[in-house]
């Protein structure tokens, strides 16, 4: 399975000096618990952070590819997959404050297996109940 996480700037000004980290859960048979801490998870062979010098207003940054071996897709069960992380950046104007964004997306799917391939069809992709905020909203979470 392959998931591509791309950062989109929905604002009206370009970003500057953006750094971000993306973590993922692997496949799960249940949603995340309420008290999940959304830790920074490091995977062998992946960089710890990703940087974008600038993302234009209403533009998109280069995607980060996440691969999950099909051998770990469970059989005949609803499967959950979570992607979360954070980004820190400045607006392009001089002396602007640092912005912080936290995100989490939940993917729910149904596995299909044949002799040659395992596929997880994503039935629902949605924002998680927690860990989605920007700037001051993140201070209280």
State the main characteristics:
mainly beta; two-stranded antiparallel ribbon; elongated
Report what the structure shows.
With 141 residues, this protein is mostly beta strands. The protein has one domain (2-139). The chain has 1 helix and 8 strands. Strands 2, 3, 5, 6, 7 and 8 form a 6-stranded antiparallel β-sheet that branches. It has a two-stranded antiparallel sheet with strand order 1-4. A hairpin with a 7-residue loop joins strand 5 and strand 6. The longest helix is centred in the last third of the chain and has 4 residues, at 136-139. It is elongated and about 55 Å long. The protein starts with a strand and ends with a helix. The mean pLDDT is 80.
Strand residues, percent: over 45%
Unreliable sequence segments: none
The span between the termini is 31 Å
Overall pLDDT metric: 80
How big is the Rg? 17 Å
Domain module tally: 1
Tell me the number of helical segments per DSSP (H or I, 4 or more residues long).
1
Count of DSSP E strands? 8
Q: Major sheet: size, sense and barrel closure?
A: 6 strands, antiparallel
Question: Could you write a compact summary of the structure shown?
Answer:
This protein is mostly beta strands. The protein is 3% helix and 46% strand.
Which SSEs are present, and which pair or pack?
Blueprint: E1 2-5, E2 15-28, E3 50-52, E4 64-67, E5 79-91, E6 99-113, E7 118-127, E8 133-134, H1 136-139
Antiparallel strand pairs: 1-4, 2-3, 2-5, 5-6, 6-7, 6-8
